[in-house]
Design goal:
CATH architecture of the largest domain: Alpha-Beta Barrel
Number of strands: 16
Structural class: alpha/beta
Largest sheet: 8 strands, mixed
Strand content: 5-15%
Number of domains: 3
Length: 582
């Protein structure tokens, strides 16, 4: 029998755990859509096909919704409520019906065209969160088309398996969990996808963004999925199996140790307290973030509320959501970032931006559409009466935008006072520093606000001129580039000179290798994804602040990112040897 060579593929760790098992290659059925001309007499029959498919699709999603509620609770099931809402969207359904009548084309052709418009707008967004939502919309579209064509969907297999696929929708993730799923591994997807969120909740290890795992794996192949390192081994050798089992034991031991410190303070050995908070996108995540030992929320992305439905959420809808989060986070703070998505979502079909990364997004939209801004601010200010709310403005490039935003906030406060509606009169207003121009004038900005938060994801892209979503240049995206580190130092210094706190809410804050450096540079607060929080706390509690200052001083003298990263890894391993560095 031929022995196959081991293949190692590297992707993005989306849900922790290490498992070995037989692969099940799930080839997602994409409906074949042919354009067909119909006659006026065929219109009633096409309408019947369409409505039957909508009804059937809703029944399927209701079943998945119930299954999700049983497995992981009603909070996570809201993902499917959003998909059901798309099916009952009167504007979308009317547009589809009108086009069938006007164009005299078959139902599935028109459904594909109409829903694809929304999907394409989302895919063009510079925001990863928006791009991931496009996959949810595609799932609804394909479900309707499949039901128009009356095709069956297979989501069962007979034995324990590692599911390998190009991409998994939230529905796939939940339906497959009825079987004995050991792990998930996909070509596409990111950590913010709903499928990744659900696999974490279901405690199923998963690695996404593997690019071509489906080309290297066949059903029945032995694979190891490492949801810590983001690796998958196909045809693993005995040595790899042995090493993976050892890593599994080490991670189990480390998780037990981290569990012991979850609720302790993030304090260095020489007594410096660091604020350690979490990033969330959905109100459903707040319970998990509290269990992980976060002291509040350093970044609440409010976009989820706007993407659940086609129309803007009302003030009351926003207030209800914000109030839940604020009350659950008490006594800790919730930093609410105002709407930060591309203009394509806010005003559909108006124009096609050549470069949305440098286009109409974030604060630029809100200042151009003050009514949209004021509605959100009213909801945030009203929620501040129930806990500790801080408001953060995204995509700020200069002082002028801050001053105009503060004027609008003052107008909203004045209106609320006239209406005798309570809010926190001392509410803190801060900004995201993610545009290089804002970083350069950080000292001027610090005099205008109560706090600053460094958004490294965009800042690094803009600073080094690298689109990390572009595979040709993504390797140039370097968080340890000397220019990035000197810029972070400059921002922190500027904040401290004017007595305001500086936090970081980008991915770099959740990178254990960067922790010693950021501590030494004087960062006041780390806001990280909940899953990594105990690990960052462990590092902070294991080191002397004075030693990290010396590490930062030496890093600032280094000239290349490779030297910096190697130096930080060596020091981290020496200071926190029990940590498992990937």
């Amino acid at each position: 029998m031929e022995t196959k060579n081991e293949i190692l593929l590297h992707g993005v760790a989306a849900s922790p755990g290490i498992v070995m098992g037989k692969a099940y290659l799930f080839t997602k059925h994409i409906p074949r859509i042919e354009e067909k001309q119909i006659t006026a007499e065929d219109i009633p029959a096409e309408m019947e096909r369409l409505l039957h498919a909508i009804v059937r699709s809703e029944k399927e999603l209701q079943k998945i919704l119930q299954l999700t509620e049983q497995k992981i609770g009603s909070a996570k099931a809201k993902i499917f409520e959003a998909q059901i809402m798309i099916l009952s969207d009167a504007v979308l359904l009317t547009a589809i019906k009108k086009r069938i009548q006007k164009d005299l084309k078959n139902a599935e052709w028109i459904v594909n065209q109409e829903i694809s418009k929304y999907q394409q707008m989302m895919l063009k967004s510079p925001d990863e969160y928006m791009r991931e939502r496009a996959h949810d919309v595609e799932d609804v579209k394909n479900r309707i088309i499949r039901n128009i064509q009356q095709e069956r969907l297979i989501s069962r297999f007979d034995q324990q398996a590692v599911v390998i696929s190009e991409i998994l929708t939230p529905a796939d993730t939940v339906l497959f969990s009825r079987n004995e799923v050991l792990a998930y591994a996909t070509d596409m997807g990111g950590t913010t996808s709903h499928a990744a969120l659900l696999s974490r909740s279901l405690k199923i290890p998963s690695v996404v963004g593997l690019k071509d795992v489906t080309k290297h794996v066949e059903t029945g192949d032995t694979v190891i999925v490492d949801g810590y390192a983001g690796n998958i081994y196909v045809h693993p050798t005995r040595e790899t199996i042995k090493r993976s089992n050892q890593r599994k034991r080490e991670h189990r031991d480390l998780d037990l140790k981290l569990g012991e410190i979850r609720q302790l303070e993030a304090q260095t050995l020489d007594g410096k307290n660091i604020h350690l908070s979490g990033n969330i996108e959905f109100s459903e995540e707040i319970d998990y973030i509290n269990k992980q030992g976060a002291h509040g929320i350093g970044l609440y992305r409010t976009e989820g509320l706007y993407l659940r439905e086609e129309s803007y959420p009302s003030e009351e809808e926003q207030f209800a959501e914000y109030k839940v989060i604020v009350q659950k986070a008490k006594p800790h703070k919730v930093v609410m970032r105002t709407l930060d998505i591309g203009g394509d979502k806010v005003v559909a079909h108006t124009h096609d931006e050549e470069n949305p990364f440098l286009g109409w997004r974030g604060i630029r939209i809100l200042l151009d559409k003050p009514d949209l801004f004021k509605t959100q601010l009213r909801a945030m200010l009203r929620a501040s009466a129930f806990g500790n709310v801080w408001i953060m403005l995204p995509m700020i490039s200069g002082v002028k935008e801050i001053r105009r935003s503060k004027e609008i906030i003052d107008e909203v406060k004045s209106d609320l006072r006239k209406e005798n509606i309570s809010f926190d009169e001392q509410i803190k207003i801060g900004v995201m520093i993610e545009v290089p121009s804002a970083a350069v004038i950080a000292a001027d900005i610090a005099q205008e606000v109560d706090f600053m938060s460094i958004g490294t994801n965009d800042l690094i892209q803009y600073l080094i001129a690298v689109d990390r979503g572009n595979e040709i240049v993504s390797s140039l995206y370097q968080e340890f580039h000397p220019a990035v580190i000197k810029t972070i130092q400059h921002i922190i210094k500027a904040g401290h000179q004017h007595n305001i706190s500086v936090s970081m809410c980008g991915e770099m804050a959740g990178d254990p290798v960067a922790t010693l450096l950021l501590l030494g540079l004087g960062l006041d607060e780390f806001s990280v994804t909940p899953i990594i929080l105990p690990e960052i706390k462990k590092i902070i509690r294991s080191v002397d602040f004075k030693e990290t200052e010396e590490i930062a001083r030496r890093v600032l003298e280094m000239k290349t990112e490779n030297d910096i990263e190697e130096f930080l890894r060596v020091n981290l391993h020496a200071m926190v040897p029990e940590l498992l560095l990937e």
